[in-house]
Amino acid sequence: RHAHPPVAACSSVEVPDGAHRHGVANRELADWVVRTALLTRPDEVVWCDGSDAEWTRLTDRMVEEGSLIRLDPGLRPDSFLARSTPDDVARMEDRTFICTSDPADAGPTNNWREPRSMHAELSGLFAESMRGRTMYVVPYSMGPVGGAISQLGVQVTDSAYAAVSLALMARVGDDALEHIGPDTAWVAGVHSVGYPLRNPDGTRRPDVAWPSNPTKYISHFPKERAIWSFGSGYGGNALLSKKCFALRIGSTIARDEGWLAEHMLLLKLTDPDGRALHVAAAFPSACGKTNLAMLQPTLPGWRVETIGDDIAWLRPGADGRLYAINPEAGIFGVAPGTSVATNPVAMDTMRKRTIFTNVALTEDGDVWWEGLTDEPPAHLIDWRGEHWTPASGTSAAHPNARFTSPIEQCRTLADDWYEQDGVPVDAILFGGRRATNVPLVVETDSWAHGVFAGATVSSERTAAQEGTVGELRRDPFGMLPFVGYDMGSHWQHWLDVGEALGAAAPKVFQVNWFRKGEDGTFLWPGFGENARVLAWIADRVTRPGAATTRGTPLGAVPAEGALDVSGLGLSGTSLQALHDVDPASWLDEADRTEEFFTSLGATVPAAVWAQLEALRARLEAA
Ligand code: GTP
Ligand code: SPV
Ligand code: MN
């Protein structure tokens, strides 16, 4: 099934040391490793097992070679700082491709390439790209090994940084490898930073702290279940388990098999009576998933436990309900803005065994970023490796600086994270960053209405004038950069899954922590106080008949007094503004939504269009 990289017809070609491994049950996998090594020509091939010993061996070597800086073991045990080059700091959407024979399968929101020509181009780039380096072979399971919703993958990479990061982010090891039987489906990931250490004439080329290549490709071949990533060492470009597999390839597998692969956090919510619910929530990148997943409720008696903070796989179970897992085993979280005040659980999670990337280094060998403390230290080494003082006028950490920690270090981790076959989902939330229009919380009245809420997820780039809609960045389901197929078809797939679930489908809500008042400040305190919204949602799920809602053209919002806001000191006007629905600005927004849907083409489902028309009719009647 996997397209085999061509092997140069050269008689002197020898299989690099370590490429052959005994006992690999899947012939295709064994062949693929050998062929990839023959194409890329590393000095050696090392099969990773994700063990502590391997972590220590690799991180020691990286410190010695200068690609990691060891943080002070007293302050931050077993933790490291990596600094990327300034041109390799985030996912690169314009270098991300979906390769399908029919461009319509990639849809209008993805960059498309014809698979054969892309393979030809990639083969040229990958040819001998690992010269002088080690090729790591990293087998992993997404989800508990052998679980009903879990999937298997193998990444080969010439980046030790990617290999050790992957060991934190996924269930890496022999257990995963042994589960790849002769006929087991698995996802192949080929990754090279594109910085060989030997020139074609055999002379040595010195390594650098962050090897990368100005030419970058993050290419997906859904039909082959393969990912080829070249030139970048950063995050979602290099940890192929994450956005490439779990979302882009994952969403195409999910479409074919009747499940969902989504950009969602997963949490367990327990009420004061001990009743537990499971909530999945989709927000675009950097819109609060990690924060909500680790929320510390301010409401007495309520408890939030973390299952996942970025990706959820959801699948109808034998009992007809929707079950979900977090396929990941680690957290790749945004550092800037994270502090003891905003997210104490995250701060605890990264106390030990953590790789920090592009944060600032303090004089005592610890890390710092904007928002960590009120006052910055007097002197730092910034993320570029330069001396920095508060007078420098630049940010000390890159805005997309991240921490990578094992999820088992999260003190609010729910036992449910270990559930072999996932947890039943009771509520789904869709949210964005909206300064205007979108209320704090709205209950949709049907699955199709919920799909419409997902399809219209958006964030405002700038605060708009009161009553008018500003420029919106549309990010349906928070999945704009991550749906591996046609966007309209993704919405149809959601409708189909809902149809199969019927009355057992979770209730769907729309939330917005980011609405602003006329003075430009947030109307809602957010963070731990979001527990109040979760409490109302829990009540709506467990007592749907209770009179705790007020109807609006958008859907049901909390009735007066139904949302516990005691002690928040919110004024009556603020409370009203939080749930205000202005028909004129919403009719304007509906026009923008129509333009957006039209831009996606004919696959936007009729049922989603019908939701837009029904919304317009309700707004006109209001
Ligand atoms: P990715 O890892 O990129 O997918 O992001 P994420 O959705 O996990 O985002 P994260 O939780 O890291 O939040 C990013 C930003 O949102 C930070 O600047 C937070 O401070 C801010 N944020 C999160 N929750 C709230 C909230 O309830 N209110 C406000 N005002 N800001 C919030
Ligand atoms: C995101 O951008 O949504 C992330 C970071 O979670 S990355 O893994 O780089 O995609
Ligand atoms: Mn994300």
Structure description:
- β13 (264-270) and β14 (276-282) form a beta hairpin.
- The chain has 16 helices and 32 strands.
- With 622 residues, the chain is of the alpha+beta class.
- The longest helix is centred in the middle third of the chain and has 17 residues, at 241-257.
- It starts with 26 loop residues before the first helix and ends with a helix.
- The structure holds guanosine-5'-triphosphate, sulfopyruvate and manganese (II) ion (MN).
- Sulfopyruvate is lined by residues 91, 235-236, 242-243, 285, 310, 332.
- Mn(2+) binds at residues 243, 263, 310.
- GTP binds at residues 286-291, 402, 433, 527-530.
- Pathway: Carbohydrate biosynthesis; gluconeogenesis.
Helix count equals 16
Ligand set: guanosine-5'-triphosphate, sulfopyruvate, manganese (II) ion
- Uncertain runs are 462-469
Approximate helicity band: 25-40%
Q: For the residues shown, what is the average pLDDT?
A: 95
Number of strands: 32
What separation lies between the terminal Cα atoms?
56 Å
**Cα shape:** globular
- Proportion of residues in β-strands: 15-25%
Q: How is the biggest beta sheet arranged?
A: 9 strands, mixed
**From the alpha-carbon coordinates, what is the Rg to the nearest angstrom?**
25 Å
- Content-based structural category: alpha+beta
